Amino acid sequence: MLGSLANAWKVPELRQRLLFTAMILALYRLGAYIPLPGIDPTVLSGAGPGGNSAVAGLFGAFTGGAFNNFAIFSLGIMPYITAAIVMQLMTVAIPRLQELSKEGEAGQQKITQYTRYFTLALALIQSTAMVFYFRAPAGGSALAGAGVLDLVVVIFTLTTGVMLTMWMGELISQRGLGNGISLIITASILSQAPFAIRSLIENGSILVMVILALLAVMIIAAIVFVNEGQRRIPITYAKRQVGRRMSQGGTTYLPLKVNMAGVIPIIFASSLLLFPVILAEFAGGGNPDSFLSRLAGFFDTDGAPYLFLYALLIIMFTYFYTAVQFNPVEHADNLKKSGGYVPGIRPGQQTALYLNNVLTRITLFGAVFLALVAIVPYIISPLLGLGQTILLGGTSMLIVVGVSLDTVRQLESQLMMRNYEGFLKKR
């Protein structure tokens, strides 16, 4: 691996891409420490908004601590991710967007433009909600004494921070190496690792650290195994005449990934279950007897109801998002039109039913795996007396490992184009 990195550094184009990616990520991390205008300096020296609340934990992990620092990137890239997921779901439901998705690069550019507009709208809404949160005691009362003009400036600063982060991600995708949005999230998560390790060293014993290290190795190995796992459906193409030419038949395969939904179901499920908690902290006013506070208490992250609903929602969302990603009927029709068929299965409807059955079985394994990765930290933390130190450990590992594998593949392809031996050796 080190030799492959050395080879990549010798290629001028790859060296420029790596340096450009590192520079953009460094600028993003710098924005996580630039405070918002109008913030009380005495608040910045405290523990940040929300303390150990669920809201602070979620936003703090995915923004690299920018939320806890009252920084201009407090919203991170989350509005763009939400907009992209919603647009992907709407592409399946709205015929006009379906037509655009089939128009090639021009249609995709139009969908990307709609996603940016949607991101801007979401950023404005979430920035306004964030201002109310920062004014409340749950948010540290950082903007309690701010005037109307100051609040407007903060709202536009947060919105601009989201759009700037989105632009940085797109720059990395175009001129750097890897998927820019994914790399920004990964950089945010990894930036919190030193603080988590320091907290573990201060509060945990050597036995606890050894157990966590072994669990981390096992979880990472399992994530790689499931992410790379696929069911290969054999496809045979018959000889056929196209115009004056006779196309050769052959045998290939259709890869169906075990974890086709990625980390999206975990994000969906955690956001949905945290919604009552967010409402309680935003609008509950800190009153423990209010309806919102009692509702948020029902979804206590240490309780069995939360873990059961969390796992159930992850499994449901995994099936839902996989159905959005892969349409068996459409793939069966495409195979039939191109003269391909699954050996032993009749083309058309029977092929669609066969693909659907196979996908249902392998998705069950992927969904259960995602649920286990998500809830294992909640079970391990109290057993080892760690509190909420590794609350998002499973989800964070899933994101970091998945993005790392994708980035390695891209660097591998760039090296193979230049006749270098890459990271993934073929045997």
Summarize the structure.
The chain is mainly alpha-helical.
Helix-strand blueprint:
Layout: H1 2-10, H2 12-31, H3 41-44, H4 54-62, H5 78-93, H6 95-101, H7 105-135, H8 148-175, H9 180-191, H10 193-203, H11 206-228, E1 230-237, E2 240-242, E3 245-247, E4 250-257, H12 264-283, H13 291-298, H14 304-325, H15 328-337, E5 340-341, H16 349-384, H17 393-417
Antiparallel strand pairs: 1-4, 1-5, 2-3
The first-level CATH class name of the largest domain:
Mainly Alpha
Number of discrete helical segments? 17
Count of the domains: 2
CATH architecture of the largest domain: Orthogonal Bundle
Count of extended strands: 5
Which structural class matches the secondary elements?
Answer: mainly alpha
**CATH T-level topology of the largest domain:** Preprotein translocase SecY subunit
First-residue to last-residue Cα separation: 16 Å
Can you list the strand order of the major beta sheet? 4-1-5
Multimeric state = single chain
List the helices and strands in order. HHHHHHHHHHHEEEEHHHHEHH
Instruction: Please bin the fraction of helical residues.
Output: 55-70%
Overall geometry: globular
CATH superfamily descriptor of the largest domain? SecY subunit domain
* SS strand fraction: 5-15%
Mean pLDDT: 79
Largest sheet: 3 strands, antiparallel
Global Rg: 24 Å
Given as residue ranges, the uncertain stretches (5+ residues, pLDDT < 50) are: none
Subcellular location: Cell membrane; Membrane
Protein name: Protein translocase subunit SecY
InterPro entries: SecY, SecY/SEC61-alpha, SecY_CS, SecY_dom_sf
Keywords: Cell membrane, Membrane, Protein transport, Translocation, Transmembrane, Transmembrane helix, Transport
